[in-house]
Design a protein that fits this description.
Structural class: alpha+beta
Number of domains: 1
Shape: globular
Oligomer: single chain
Distance between the termini: 31 Å
Helix content: 25-40%
């Protein structure tokens, strides 16, 4: 399996192009696979304690070839609690791609969220949201986050 440093094709991919977007989804997949080694996700939710904060993963939907996931940090308590960044991901196991399908509008990353009212063009909205995911996954890995077997509950 190639390492992330060997994926020079991502750096060479033209931003906001369809091939560039697919390269970004593939890079997201490789980073997500390092974060969650068992891509069949044999759990419904899990947490990972890193050097910075606790990372929360929740499976929202399971389909034959895809899984929809909520991935976030939670900050604050009670009514002041907020998810940040608040990302929904779609894992395409057959194509080995991960796409950030949404980023909550209340997030401080709203400019990167690619919300339809910011830009209606699909490539222009998908690129920043998935670049955010790519960089955030790299950050989570650097902070020591993992949803490997020892770090999460087993389905019984």
């Amino acid at each position: 399996m190639p390492t992330l440093k060997q994926n020079h094709w991502l750096a060479a991919a033209k931003p906001r192009s369809f091939p560039g977007l697919m390269a970004l989804y593939e890079s997201n997949y490789l980073r997500f696979e390092r974060l969650v080694p068992e891509l069949d996700l044999p759990f419904d939710q899990a947490t990972s304690k890193g050097a910075d904060a606790t990372l929360y993963l929740r499976v929202l939907e399971r389909c034959r070839y895809t899984t929809t996931i909520h991935l976030t940090y939670w900050f604050g308590e009670g009514e002041t609690q907020r998810a940040d960044p608040d990302l929904r991901l779609r894992l395409y196991r057959d194509a080995e791609l991960v796409e950030a399908i949404s980023c909550d509008a209340r997030s401080r990353y709203v400019a990167l969220a690619g919300l339809p009212d910011i830009d209606d063009d699909v490539l222009n909205s998908q690129w920043p949201r998935n670049l955010l995911l790519n960089k955030w996954l790299s950050y989570c890995l650097a902070q020591g986050h993992s949803f490997g077997g020892a770090h999460r509950p087993r389905v019984r």
